[in-house]
Amino acid sequence: MDLLEQLRRYVPFNEQEAMDRAELIRLLESGEALYTRDNRSRHLTASCWVVSPDRQKVLMAYHKIYDSWAWLGGHADGEHDLLQVAARELQEESGLQQARPVSDEIFSLEILTVDGHEKRGQYVSSHLHLNVTYLFEADPTLPLRSNPDENAGVAWFGRDECLQKSTEPWFCRRIYGKLLKKFP
Predict the structure, then answer these.
(1) Which terminal residue of the chain has fewer beta carbons within 10 Å of its beta carbon, N or C?
(2) What pTM was computed for the model?
(3) Distance CA 32, CA 34 (A)
């Protein structure tokens, strides 16, 4: 099923998701090129919210660009299957080999602002990430490894602890807090 159809079927969790869903649908219907970073003002990304089987722990990575503990994910880079993008990024950023999607359905939607920054010695202008999040499950006893190109560490945190570890208040309030509320 293509992304536009998934978005049309998706039931928003809150007002933020309803507004972002409407805008994502509008942008995809416009035919604008969104699947690659060639679109420097906005492009599609996929994230994964990785939880332990008992739903008491969350996997996060210490992202160098944001200088904060955060979820895992990355750019579509031409791939139209965003669940596959999320799975690829999870493996690349954490080394986790045995994570599985809880569902192939979208778990959450976000349009995120990204401040201008330097990556690999080049300036990247401020832009939007049109983000789709998928829920993954993994055993927290499995080995992890960081990816020096992306992060300085990967670790499991308790539900409340993950909000304390992030240094991005807006993300804690609007995104991570929402993701924690979406399952018991």
Answers:
(1) C
(2) 0.95
(3) 6
